[in-house]
Amino acid sequence: DVQLQASGGGLVQAGGSLSLSCVASGFTFNQYVMGWFRQAPGAEREFVAAIDWNGGSTHYAASAKGRFTIAISRDNAKTTLYLQMRSLEFEDTGAYYCNAWPIPRDWGKGTLVTVSS
């Protein structure tokens, strides 16, 4: 079974930083482009960032580029995806998930990021 377990969320003040991790199992991680997604309260889940199978190429949503500094990375040996976020704003609050991109597999548990203004 596909399992995607995100962690690292928490409560942070505006302007602060967080580093998220997502451990994947149940599929061949290093053969997939992987992405991070955010679901704000009452909103649809949206794409944030993606990274290709070997980390050589990254892609960020236009909204993410403009609102906070982010960096996606991966460690295929650990089947783990990372997202570093700096200069967080209140609007970045939401549950963050990782999954294959652009065609996601089963969704796992997200990690909640709450930015206080």
Give a quick precis of the structure.
The protein has one helix and ten strands.
Topology:
Layout: E1 3-7, E2 10-13, E3 18-25, E4 34-39, E5 45-51, E6 58-60, H1 62-67, E7 69-75, E8 80-86, E9 94-100, E10 111-116
Parallel strand pairs: 2-10
Antiparallel strand pairs: 1-3, 3-8, 4-5, 4-9, 5-6, 7-8, 9-10
Describe the structure.
By secondary structure, this protein is mostly beta strands. Strands 2-10-9-4-5-6 form a 6-stranded mixed beta sheet. The longest helix is centred in the middle third of the chain and has 6 residues. The radius of gyration is 13 Å and the shape is globular. The N and C termini lie far apart (39 Å).
Throw out a few tags for this protein:
single chain; 117 residues; mainly beta; four-stranded antiparallel beta sheet; 5% helix
- Count of beta strands: 10
**Helix share of residues?**
under 10%
Average per-residue pLDDT, rounded, comes to 94
Counting DSSP H or I runs of 4 or more residues, the number of helices is 1
Oligomer: single chain
Molecular shape: globular
State Rg: 13 Å
Instruction: Please report the distance between the alpha carbons of the first and last residues.
Output: 39 Å
Computed structural class: mainly beta
Q: Could you state the order of secondary-structure elements as H and E?
A: EEEEEEHEEEE
Give the strand line-up of the largest sheet: 2-10-9-4-5-6
> Low-confidence segments, ≥5 residues, pLDDT <50?
none
Q: Name the beta content range.
A: over 45%
